[in-house]
Amino acid sequence: MARAKVLGRLNWQVATVADVRVESVSAATLVLEVDDWPGHRAGQHVDLRLTAEDGYTAQRSYSIASAATDDRLELTIDHLPDGEVSTYLTQVVEVGDQLEIRGPLGGWFVWDVDDPRPVLLIGGGSGLVPLMAMVRTRLHNPDAAPFHLVYSTRSPHDSLFATELVDSTGPDLSVATIYTRTAPPNSARPPSRITAADLDVPGFLAADAPAVFVCGSNGFVEAAANLLLALGHSAANIKTERFGPTGGQP
């Protein structure tokens, strides 16, 4: 049985688009129905393959945004100006369309509900997506460890899951949004890149030995990891996931 599950993850499966949601000015969420979906762990991803009529194929990896307990699979995809796959997925795909996926994949950048450590999540731009799967999974498990999310985004128009994050906050799940280019008028923090002060949060300090997950562009992850190490966090407690070309923070 275990071998059959592993093989299922390696084989391509047909996913039917059940819904398409606009998440920001450049991102959309595809809600997929997959027969015999084996389930996933919060933080995992899938491969997605498109095949044109002439046989040309393009394949990309996308983080899973849905909670580990959800029956439907959600992929939140940011449109890249020159991205052939992201353009199709965010601007062309409609409900009822079928896509090919393979997964779930990845077993290192994951959070499990039975981990007793407090959890510090740090996401830049669309790097929030796998962290959102962790947040949603935690919401289904109210007795799990406390969470604090630091989300760095260019502007309110670029923010992902903004309303949902506001509605999800509580005593054991807090969110701090960092705007790097344009902040809302009522923001007490002027636009700037993430700083050590943003990560120096009571209950999630180095002395508390939290499990730390950082996801974003190469430049963002490098900057955040260096800040964490300077604050005294152990490298063994920090897990990172990077995407896209080398570049600056969002």
From TrEMBL:
Pfam family, one: FAD_binding_6
Entry coiled-coil feature ranges: none
Gene Ontology molecular function, alphabetical: 2 iron, 2 sulfur cluster binding; oxidoreductase activity
Cofactor: FAD
InterPro entries named in the record: Cbr1-like_FAD-bd_dom, FAD-bd_FR_type, Flavoprot_Pyr_Nucl_cyt_Rdtase, FNR_nucleotide-bd, MRET, OxRdtase_FAD/NAD-bd, Riboflavin_synthase-like_b-brl
Keywords attached to this entry: 2Fe-2S, Iron, Iron-sulfur, Metal-binding
Superkingdom to which the source organism belongs: Bacteria
Domain FAD-binding FR-type: from-to ranges: 10-111
Protein name stated in the entry: Ferredoxin reductase
Organism expressing this protein natively: Antrihabitans stalagmiti
